[in-house]
TrEMBL record:
It comes from the Bacteria. The keyword Disulfide bond does not apply. The chain crosses the membrane at residues 123-142, 154-172, 178-196, 208-241, 247-266, 295-316, 323-342, 348-368, 375-399. Keywords: Membrane, Transmembrane, Transmembrane helix. The keyword Translocase does not apply. It comes from Edaphobacter modestus. This is Dolichyl-phosphate-mannose-protein mannosyltransferase.
Length: 402
């Protein structure tokens, strides 16, 4: 099979530079962090998921059955630590019996063996979440560039990379960054499946498989995010599939069953723990504008707030700005911002940010193609420079708060 050539031109290099700047901010914050009780909880329970079940009878881990909390974040946090521990025990196994540090083998050793030998725990624990945030940033740029061109893609990515809230939640273990990553990928994968349905069937399978994985991992991060993503996927696929709409429900049912299998695997195929997905109440929600009001009223997001106000006026006043590529991320952002979970502590407003930045990139890309290009080119540059300055000056505060 001939794979398409991937060319690294100036757009890819500039996007990589922005992502490197984002990564540098995260590394700077992590270097000044202290391990917290949440860090220890994610590390302990994540390692228990990978290495052995909890000794507490009737519970999945010593954190309980994770009512309202997804397993994905714990597994992401625990995987590097478990891998390093197993590597230490494997190296120890190669030593002569009289020189070994641990009596147990790598397979039968306790979860807590070699814990005092683990190094760089802070980086091993936090960097996987930074990796997913960088991955999301690359996906955001790819989507926005495909839809709106280079200018829209770079504006969306620039706002993402210099958003203080994105940096703050990317440098600590949590399920919200993973839910944000999964939900954004799920929505645009569903759109990709719908477009692929217009072509030969051989092109359906890879995208449907990707849809299953995206839905399953999103559910493992947060059930509410997966439910919203599945509903959005159903609506968008029905709208885009046109003459192939009779296949949409079959694909969605198959994807939901596959996602359930992925979610079941995240609980190590333990049925008692898996049942808490349906009884834990993680999908319970209500509505409140407090989170959205706090985000847009924060001085740290002043440039983003200005860009949002300008984009809203342009979307309402200029017809060319109101089309599918701009309107879908706007609708999803409006749906997510007012959501508040009532059973678990989570941040649906954070999940809305990639959709908001996609919308902003689209509207500003449209207006840059008009006769007002010079005026809005200056405005776009000022917004990015201002937001970058705000984010960089707040890094010390972010390090102390996280």
């Amino acid at each position: 099979m001939n794979l398409p050539a991937f060319k690294i031109g100036w757009p890819q290099r500039l996007a990589a530079l922005l992502l490197v700047l984002f990564l540098s901010q995260c590394l700077w914050v992590i270097s000044r962090q202290q391990l917290s009780t949440d860090d220890y909880r994610f590390a302990r329970c994540g390692r228990e998921m990978w290495e052995r079940p909890s000794p507490l009878a009737g519970y999945f881990t010593s954190c309980g059955n994770l009512n309202g909390d997804g397993t994905f974040g714990y597994r992401v946090a625990g995987l590097p630590l478990s891998a390093q521990r197993l590597a230490l025990l494997a190296i120890d196994k190669m030593r002569s019996p009289e020189n070994r540090l641990y009596a147990s083998s790598a397979l039968s050793g306790s979860t807590w063996e070699a814990r005092h030998e683990l190094s760089s725990v802070k980086y091993l624990l936090h960097l996987p979440f930074v990796f997913f945030a960088v991955w999301l940033g690359a996906g955001l740029w790819w989507v926005a560039r495909r839809l709106f061109g280079n200018e829209g893609g770079f504006f969306a990515l620039g706002l993402y990379c210099f958003c203080p809230d994105i940096v703050r939640y990317s440098v600590v273990p949590n399920n919200d960054v993973l839910a944000m990553w999964g939900l954004y990928g799920l929505v645009y994968t569903a759109i990709g499946v719908a477009h692929a349905m217009q072509g030969p069937r051989r092109k359906w399978r890879p995208r449907i498989a990707l849809l299953i994985v995206a839905l399953g991992l999103t559910a493992a991060a947060h059930l509410l995010a997966a439910m919203i993503g599945l509903l959005a996927a159903a609506i968008l696929m029905m709208y885009l599939a046109e003459r192939r709409r009779s296949h949409v429900m079959q694909i969605l049912i198959f994807s939901a069953l596959g996602a359930m299998a992925v979610l079941f695997a995240s609980y190590t195929f333990r049925l008692p723990a898996f049942t808490y997905v349906f009884t834990g109440g993680s999908a319970r929600f209500w509505f409140s504008l407090d989170a959205a009001r706090g985000f847009f009223a924060s001085p740290a997001n002043a440039a983003i707030s200005v860009a949002t106000a300008v984009a809203a006026i342009l979307w309402l006043g200029i017809r060319r700005c109101r089309y599918f590529g701009n309107t879908i991320p706007l609708i999803l952002a409006l749906v997510l911002f007012p959501l508040v979970t009532t059973q678990a502590v989570s941040r649906p407003w954070l999940w809305a940010l990639p959709f908001l930045f996609t919308f902003l990139g689209g509207v500003f890309a449209d207006i840059l193609e008009t006769r007002y290009r010079k005026l809005f080119l200056v405005l776009t540059g000022l917004i990015l420079v201002t937001q970058a300055g705000l984010c960089i000056t707040l890094l010390t505060t972010i390090a102390h708060q996280s």
